[in-house]
What does this fold into?
Amino acid sequence: MSSNLIIGVCTAYVVLLFAVAFVADRRARRGRLDWLQSPLVYTLSISVYCTGWTFYGAVGSAARSGLEFVAIYTGPVIVFIGWWWFLRKLVRIGRLQRITSIADLVSSRYGKSNTLAVLVTVLAVVASTPYIALQLQSLTLSFTVFAPAREGIPPDGAGFWIAAGLALFTILFGTRNVDANERHHGVVTAIALEAVIKLVALVAVGLFVVFGLGGGPGQVFADMPPALAAPESFGARWLTITLLSAAAVICLPRMFQVTVVENVDERHLATAAWAFPLYLLLICLFVLPIAVTGLALLPAGSNPDMFVLTLPLMAGQDVLALVALIGGFSSATSMVIVATIALSTMVSNHIIMPIWLRFTSDETKTSGDVRAMLLISRRASIIVLLLLGYVYFRASGGSAALASIGLVAFTGVAQILPSLVAGVFWRGATRPAALAAIAAGFAIWVYTLLLPSFEAGLGAPGILAHGPWGIAALRPQALFGLEGVDPLAHALFWSMSVNVAVLVGVSLVTLPSPLERLQAALFVDVFRMQTVAPGAYIRRYATSEDLFTLAQRILGTVPAHRLFTELARDQGLPAGLPRPDDALIERLERDLAGAVGAASAHAMVGQIASGETISMDALISIADETAQIVEYSHRLEEKSRELEETAAELRLANIRLQELGEQRDAFLAQVSHELRTPMTSIRSFSDILRENRDLPPEQARRFLGIINDESQRLTRLLDEILDLGFLESRRVAWELEEVDLEDVLDRALSATEALTARSGLRITRSPRQRDAVVMAQRDRLAQVFINLISNAVKYAGSEAALALTIHAGPGGITVDVADDGPGVPAGDAEQIFEKFARARGLSDSRGAGLGLPISREIMRNFGGDLTLRSSRRGAIFRVSLARPAAPAAARPPAARPRADSPQTRVRAATSPET
It folds into this structure.
């Protein structure tokens, strides 16, 4: 295949990318965002994680180390499935704080520290440089497979021109706007297209290899060398790579760019949580079959990284090989484009801009084209970054293992993760701690992993073998005597251990500044505090004219005018400049942060706005918010306990309802029984009298007497049932009066004198009380005591004793009616107050079992109560009554019971048997 054809196809592909990006940008400018902001495009753009390392290097890694390559993908899968809520938090913070890069987020969290932003930027650039070199190397190797150097494309020359072409594309579509926070719709759409192309290309090669060369999946895996599936593949190195890939999918500048900065709707993360892992599954599905087939069919010594190309070429499938070339080209170019956009923004905002501000501080307020400077600095940064990648590619000697270069970059960017995670979850993390932690981890990574990767190009085997100055404890790959460990695991262990230890230790001994405390509250509680404006806490003063001039120099005349017009309208002003209050200054700083980053925006506004302070009220508010969180947690615990108690009460209520249902059935059955007994007697004797007209007069009178007695019994029973119903319904308005309790007891004893005399019941009373006056109804209260004395006669037995004792107190008076009979079983203390109920073993056919229920309802209508007290012998019924609280005339009028009401009839028919 000629070099001209290859160059032509690649050029046509680049033209296609230019066209797609151009169309997407134009649609975005016209406001036609429909599919440009779809979750599918967003998910496909995240696939920029799959670079030339994935397309070529994954097969090479599988051929060398078996299933180890899978660990590159398990980390991102774990993050997007199990930790997507952390990504959602980053996206929310990014939108509210106008974050432009990962360096911007870290610096903004720790008091908008530009020093910290510079450190993260330098780390990101140093860590990404090997990664950019990896892409250039993969593209160069792929071109040499098709067109060796003798055909006019020397490897070094190819790498240089590829870097130049990528720089041109990135400059044209990645630096069109000064607002780095503004979405790059053209670039994102082109990246999404490249995601589809590289997936289709790799799957096409995989299908051909498995079914065209390997004879089907069964045959391919039957020919797989045992070493590729050895258990050794799942050791410490597997865990190390999994951790590194999980950190990389968050901290790599390009991944942060597409996942956080380019996100237009955080709900898209819900789609990416399953769609991105599915994409990774598809793209690595044929990696192992291609590696196995390449080892079986290609000559010994063939480069495993190029199996994706050399297998189709060996089989004479030039078109398929060309498709694979385009897939690899897409993988590498998409990574370089997004990475250089992110890195150039960081370099421009956090390194070039602060330097420019320092040398032009006097002119910043009134002059200076900041917009032009920003665009020029970003475009220059893109060129420098790609040049650094090319230099590293040359200096590293073009290592044959692409995967090793990628893992070097992964370990470098992982040094940002501890400070990033602590920043969004721990208020106590401080700026000095983040600075020291990242610097320490960065230094150890450079020494233990980055410098050894230059061994082939720089030729320094002595340092690796013996350490600097011959100090064995300082050997880069056996630091402090840790030998026999994989170099990657060794570097990750030492760098991350020192990183985390320094972060925690320094945070515990340093105090955050007021601005750090404010930012910590806004970051940690972003979901709860998203409506809190930082301007409510920060007090700054500036003129509207100076602020407008600053906005105009950075945002441009039209955007600045639109912003200030909107702010004036929000303040209720018809026209002109808005009032320069705290909210306006804060809004301007956030908008400037979208262009120059939080730290630079803070510094620029600080030149205009003086007197920045954070009020004590703000700090108290932050402390109050912490207390509110604790209080909310306590409330949740209390609610949980209340719910448990409510559930227990509901269970008891359900049991009570079942018991009431059973009591209702028993009540109806008992009523039927009680009514049927007298009715049966009445009917029987009536039939005898009707059918036997010749009965002797004496016998007929006796039968008529029985019929009369049973009729009266039936009437009393019906009256008691009706009376109890009225009492329980509380529909009777009681007219209470002052009643002498001693007189009522005298009346009750007189009414039951004949009954007690026949039974031999001995009654004793406590000494008479002179002022035993209670609020009640005389007849009703007498009815209660008659019932209690009658019960004692029925159940206490002959020759029993009954004691009536009055206890007077300030709040009321109680009367204990105590007998020495068999008493009431403990389990029946409440049951005896139920309708038709009697204590077990004390059944008596002479009553219906309504006396005690009626008596209790009477007492409760008086505002008192009737209870059964526990006793070793006999039964003690306590009657509780209230003393007069106000003159009777002051009480509200109440309706008297009608003359024919059940209550009146009951009083008229009161007898010892009730």
